[in-house]
Amino acid sequence: MDLPHTPSFRLDGKRALVAGASSGIGLACAVALGEAGAEVTVAARRQDALDDLVATMSAAGMMARALVLDVSDVLATQSAVAEHGPFDILVNSAGFARHSPAEETTEEDFDVVAGLNVKGAYFLTQAVAKGLIKAGKPGSLMNISSQMAKVGGPDRAVYAATKHAVEGFTKSMAIEWGRKGIRVNTICPTFIETPLTKQTFDRPERRAWIEEKIKLGRIGKVEDIMGAVQFLASDASALITGTALIIDGGWTAE
User: For residue 159, what pLDDT band results from cuts at 50, 70 and 90?
Assistant: First the structure.
């Protein structure tokens, strides 16, 4: 009897681009890919933070390099990806939020959040895919979305709108590029403890609301995302495209 073999979670020989890698979820994703053997290009706007991350990852035996990049600048992003690619793996963790009641949303707030979360994400994904198509290579492209791509929440109308949009273009891109071997998926975390979410967790009433909604009874950690990123980047997920991996502790189960 010939037994099946579990596909490898290793990423040796793969080149990965992680945008928004200077802190929080993006940093954790970069480490996860580096631990699995990928050569990781960490991208963000802050050179000093990237240099610190590259030095730390390199000291731990991982392959990493820095790329200063503002994903909201479409032309600069397209140029950088064309110059430094092709990348076999993309993790886009660059994102932004300005939370407010829906009746108080300003046009500027909407444009800034949508400009990064939707427009920036769209054209970054497109740029990496173009490089793969030109090189005739398969790939795995991931956008860090949110559980708010599946539900709504107070003060989050704009943010939820942008994440719902990411889910839409992910499905369409997956359909278009599937026969080229390019997979496109999202990861949808619940509230994760990072420097950017500290302000939310410091509000007792908001923290209580979050903990009540998460069925596992705890707030997420960046480590909760790392295995999912390795999985979607690797051959272990070879038949998964056009979908969302929801890491929400059961928030959206109801």
Answer: very high
Contacts 24+ apart (CB under 8 A), 127-131: 127/77, 127/78, 127/81, 127/82, 127/85, 128/17, 128/81, 128/85, 128/86, 128/87, 128/90, 129/173, 129/177, 129/182, 129/184, 130/81, 130/82, 131/81, 131/82, 131/85, 131/86, 131/87
In sequence order, the β-bridge partners of residue 220 are: 192
Instruction: Return mean pLDDT, the chain.
Output: 95
pLDDT value of position 2 = 94
Question: What is the value of pTM for the model shown?
Answer: 0.95
Q: Where are the beta strands (DSSP E) in the chain?
A: 15-19, 39-44, 63-68, 89-92, 139-144, 182-189, 244-247
Q: Name the catalytic one among 87, 122, 123, 159.
A: 159
Which domains are seen in the chain, by residue range? 15-249 (3.40.50.720)
Length of the chain measured in residues: 254
For residue 133, give both structure tokens.
């198509």
Specify whether 122 is catalytic: no
SS3 203: coil
User: pLDDT by residue (tens digit) across 187-214?
Assistant: 999 999 888 777 778 888 888 888 899 9
Q: Which helix (H) or strand (E) holds 131?
A: helix 121-135
Residue pair 144/92 in contact (Cβ under 8 Å)? The answer is yes
Q: How confident is the model at residue 21 (pLDDT cuts 50, 70, 90)?
A: very high
